[in-house]
Amino acid sequence: MLRPMFEHVPPVRWLALVLLGLRQQGEVVLDGDTFSVAPRDFGVTLELHATGGYEEGTRRFCFEYLKPGMTFIDIGAHVGLYSVPAARRVGPAGRVLAFEPDDINRAMLQQNIQRNGVEGVEVFSCGICDRDGRLPFHRSEFNSGDHQLFHEGRGRRSHEIEVARLDSVLQRTGGPVHLVKMDVQGAEARVLAGMEQVFAANHAMALIVELSPWMLRDIGDDPRDLLDGLVGQGFELGTIDEATGRIEPGDAEVVLSRCVDSSYLNVRCLRGAGP
Fold first, then answer.
1. Is 82 inside any structural domain?
2. How many domains does the chain have?
3. When comparing pLDDT for 147 and 61, which is higher?
4. Which residues contact 209 (CB under 8 A, 6 or more apart)?
5. CA 175 to chain CA centroid, nearest Å
6. Distance, CA of 56 to CA of 148 (rounded, Å)
7. Does some domain include residue 41?
8. Burial label, 110 (beta-carbon count in 10 A; 0-12, 13-18, 19+)
9. 34 in a domain, yes or no?
10. Which of 125, 198, 211, 242 has the fewest CB atoms lying closer than 10 Å?
11. Rounded CA gap, 68 and 242, in Å?
């Protein structure tokens, strides 16, 4: 209910952000790491301050799955809530590739990497999708985790950014891939379309895909096709309960039935032997 009001009524948005900025601090501690965050933010920062945590079930799976020497790819890395602890899990023999196209988020991501003393994180300024080139990037003024590549027409300020297929990036960097997490606000099908070589070269791997059916449909992508495509690639699907950490398996139809159009959930996709 709040999203359309903030998108389309600037005076309400301005007042809400001012009041929120007075209430929220620009720094949080999560699982022993200290993160700079945007105080005037109705997304990630609000959840962190309101609950003291963030996607606890997904974080638990990721950090239990990752082992020393592995490669973790964080697409839509935001301020590093996954990249920083993942770097600690994979250690000096592993690596983290963090993609964050928003300048403000990326500056905080780099600051959080340094302040928490982790190494092995390579930060990329490009967006990841199904093509190499440049595309408009549409920024949300009230949710720092809701900047989008393909959604238009909601009064957002836009500018062009560099975009690339993950296949293209890994052709330059090389190496195996073990876990990919994507949180790209409806562009998930486009990201997966640019990962054909990644899938071919890495049989045993896992994905975390944020599923938001209405965002996918908004840009002409079918959420059922996305899930069917993952099953066709040999992935077993499961939805993550963020409160308990429980992963409930299911086929594409079952997974889609668990996510009503106005919400989202994280889908764990697993192929090959786990760690």
1. yes
2. 1
3. 61
4. 182, 188, 192, 226, 230, 266, 267, 269
5. 21
6. 24
7. no
8. middle
9. no
10. 125
11. 25
* Pairing between β-strand 205-211 and β-strand 247-249 as defined by DSSP bridges: unpaired
User: For 24-70, what is each residue's pLDDT tens digit?
Assistant: 688 899 999 999 998 878 778 877 877 888 999 999 999 999 999 99
Model confidence over 209-253: pLDDT tens digits?
A: 999 998 899 889 999 999 999 999 999 999 999 999 999 999 999
Kindly report the CATH number assigned to the domain that includes residue 117: 3.40.50.150
Domain of 126 in residue numbering reads as: 53-271
Question: 207 lies in a domain?
Answer: yes
- 210 by DSSP, 3-state: which? strand
What mean pLDDT is reported for the chain? 89
pTM (two decimals)? 0.90
Match 């560099």 to its residue by tokens.
162
Q: Percent helix, strand, coil in the chain (nearest 5)?
A: 35, 25, 40
Which class for 85: exposed (0-12), middle (13-18), buried (19 or more C-beta within 10 A)?
buried
**What's the chain's Rg over C-alpha atoms?**
18
Residue of 44, 74, 107 lying closest to 179 (CA atoms): 74
